[in-house]
Design a protein that fits this description.
about 250 residues, mainly alpha, 3-stranded parallel beta sheet, 3 strands, about 5% strand
Amino acid sequence: MAVLVVPTLQAMIDIYSLSTVGGDRSERFLTYVDACRAGERLHGYNPMTTKPVAEVLERMATLDAERLLLDAGSETLEILGVDDDIELFISVTAPGIWTDRQATAIDHAVAPRHFGELLLWFDDPLDSLDIRTAAIEQTVRVVWWARRHSQPKLDEIAYCEGLAGALAGCHGVPSGVAAETVEVLGEDASRATAVAYLFGDESARHLGYPPLGLDDNEGRNHSIAAINTTLLTTSTRDVARETLRNST
């Protein structure tokens, strides 16, 4: 098993140093487009943002964030007991006309376009622990989604998100409403149900989906709590084996 971390921080630091004069014909934008076409994993960035993303990238480089990602990803594969080779890379993004923060964060969990992307937001107070936590969660998702052959049902994606959060050190909060929702709608494979369950009514309404009577992140927090309870009596590898078995 091996984790390959594709570097993005220095490439984007260099791109953000370029001029934006000319808009979509500017040196910055054209350099960014060429880099993406060449296969560099930069698609999660907003190249023309006026936000101080470059300053955040400099701080991330000082923290050696890509080394933290490599270490956390490798440790997580070992804990899961899998021999997958996976690719991970960091994207530090900012909201913009094409980037709705809530929708982007939700898609990252329930319908990822780029499995290995560690999505971070420029204005979050990121430190080494935050990066490690996010890296563990994303590694679990990468391994799980790589085994998907169809859109997951609610009970499956809840299990994945629960395991991701639990391994990252989150405790979660049990919820009777969330437990009942999974029991009733567990076979539902719709994106709308997954969003409403994991992220709550406000997020569901934001994306035009019907609410399920859940508070913000109530379903996800319940799933994490449920996995933590299971881990009291079952080994992490056994729980991971069941989670990954259910992902096919």
